[in-house]
Amino acid sequence: MTEITQRRTTWQKLDARARTVLPFGLTVIVLLFGMTPTYVPGLAQITPMYTLVAIYFWAIYRPDLLGYGLGFVIGVLEDLLTGAPLGVGALTLLLTQWIVFNQHKFFHAKPFAITWFAFGLVAFGAMLLKWVGIGLVTSSGFTPFGDLFASYLITVAVYPIIAWLFSKAQSGLLVEP
Amino acid sequence: MKQPTGQISRLGTFKYLAQRFAFLSLIGMTFALMLIGKADTVIVERARMAVSDAVTPILRVMAEPAASISQFVTNVQELGAIREQNTDLRETNARLLEWQAVAQKLENENRQLRALLGTVNEPGAHAISARVVADSGGAFAQSVLITAGGRDGVAKGQAVVTGEGLAGRVTQAGYRSARVLLVTDINSRIPVRVGEAGDRAILAGNNSPRPRLIFLGVKSAIAPGDRVVTSGDAGAFPPGLPVGRVVVSDESSALIEPFVSRDRLQYVEVLDFGLTGILADADGPQ
Fold first, then answer.
1. Which domains can be identified in chain A, with CATH numbers?
2. What would the mean pLDDT of A101-108 be, rounded to a whole number?
3. Which residues fall within 8 angstroms of residue A151, CB to CB, at 6 or more apart?
4. Confidence band (pLDDT; 50, 70, 90) for A154?
5. Which of A58, B63, B81, B208 has the fewest CB atoms within 10 Å of its CB?
6. What is the ipTM for the molecules in this complex?
7. Which helix or strand (DSSP H or E) is residue A175 part of?
8. B270 and B154 in contact (C-beta within 8 Å)?
């Protein structure tokens, strides 16, 4: 009898531990999803910055489960996988987290429209930083700004969809802190 | 103002400082990574390919639904235009039969002339087929991951083509995956020949769908519609692979519309001509 209770608590512990990696796991899935070809003409050129959406969302709602360390890991993973210059993506995500963590009072328990609007501002800064960073690191020059701006608009447009999916996952699988 | 006292405030300060330290050291690490990446060491390349190799099986599964949907849409679209297409194909077929006769005649003539001159035949290409499973980088980079790597004979520097023409070149080859830098990428430079005169130039990508020609001779008279093919200079590519067509040409610039579109890449062929290429390095993956 006692053995069964013992085992169950071990499983429960393991289960709780597994749930804490949910934000990281979902962010990696979103990263891979952004890389799958869509075969829609012109879309690959303006793919949204999915990881930015994910990092921003978890920085507001679960900073305890996706801190600087994991943000850095995701950024480096993205740079390695997408063939972008190493380090620039990671820097962008880290600074995004830094802004949200430092303005926690502003972001905490605010209506959705406000966090969405704030995301528009943060994402614009992040996009500019990545654009300048990549332009400076690679010797080949700067990417045309037009496609980049379109990519930014789409990133802001997909924010509600991803935020909705993530909040569903959070309320379904994560215990409130 | 009341000062918070005791253990809690000390713990809070410690936590705050630890977090700040973690943040600053991670920022430092990103700059270190930029420097390492800039030096373009073999380690970075190996890390990139190790990650790609690990993730490619997952991407392969994820790419399946999009490919099926795209196939379905294409089928429906084709169904609508089937009569029209049939007439077109009949006409094309008749035209191609004429060309076939011409080609056979030329091939015979070519063989005879080669025999007269005693030239050595070019080595034949060995093609490796692969599926495109990831289109990465968005607006910042134009490269794709394919499902063939070192185990299939793919090596750095090889040309990647589709039925339409040149798609790009292999820049990293892992064990079961490889990265193909498309001709439109900002880092892509390809020696080409333009038009009937065969003017030499370099096709330089700029991350837009239309790469431009640079180092074109002053006296060259290229016009919109001219075909651009690889020149084979520097041993980077086999000569004569179709690349694209000139769409805009004025005094300052010439833009090319590549035959291969990034959006339609689904299956590609990696050509192994046995050329070492300008990219090959001694300790790269074989």
1. 21-173 (1.10.1760)
2. 84
3. A45, A46, A47, A48, A49, A127, B138, B139
4. very high
5. B81
6. 0.82
7. none
8. yes
| Among B19, B21, B30, the residue to mutate for chain A (most A Cβ within 10 A) | B30
Answer whether A65 touches B (CB < 8 Å): no
B37 to A151: CB separation less than 8 angstroms, yes or no: no
Nearest-CA neighbor of A39 among B79, B179, B262? B262
Cα separation, B33 vs B38, in Å, equals 8
Picking from A45, A76, A134, A142 by the largest number of B CB atoms within 10 A of its own CB, the best residue to mutate is A45
Question: Considering CB atoms only, which of A69, A87, A138 is closest to B33?
Answer: A87
Which residue ranges make up each domain of chain B?
189-259
Q: What digits encode the pLDDT tens for the residues A17-45?
A: 778 888 899 999 999 988 888 877 777 77
Q: pLDDT per residue over B167-196, tens digit each?
A: 999 988 889 999 999 999 888 888 888 888
Indicate whether A5 pLDDT > 90: no
| CA-closest candidate to residue B239, choices B159, B135, B128 | B159
Q: Which of A46, A52, A81 to mutate to test the interface with B (most CBs of B within 10 A)?
A: A81
The pLDDT of residue B8 is above 80: no
Across the interface, whether the CB atoms of B22 and A68 are under 8 A apart is answered yes
Q: Which residue of B has its CA nearest to A78?
A: B137
A93 inside 8 A of chain B by CB? no
Distance CA(B76)–CA(B202), nearest Å, equals 40
A136 vs A142, B2, B27, B38, B205, CA distance in Å?
Answer: 8, 49, 17, 11, 17
Percent of chain B exceeding pLDDT 90 equals 18
Q: Residue B281 has what pLDDT?
A: 44
Chain B neighbors of A45, CB-CB under 8 A = 138-139, 209, 262
Helix (H, G, I), strand (E, B) or coil at B143: strand
A88 contact B CB<8A: yes
A-to-B residue pairs, Cβ atoms closer than 8 angstroms: 161
Across B1-15, average pLDDT: 64
For residue B138, the chain A residues in CB contact (below 8 A) are 34, 44-49, 82, 151
Q: How far apart are CA A48 and CA A123, in angstroms?
A: 11
Q: B189-259, which class in CATH?
A: mainly beta
Lowest mean pLDDT among A127-141, B45-59, B262-276: B262-276
pLDDT higher than 60, residue B279: no
What average pLDDT does this structure show over B41-46?
84
Q: How far is A51 from chain B (nearest CA, A)?
A: 12
CB contact (8 A) between residue A48 and residue B37? no
Residue B123 has a pLDDT of 59
Q: What are the C-alpha distances in Å from A133 to residues A137, A152, B46, B137, B280?
A: 6, 16, 23, 14, 28
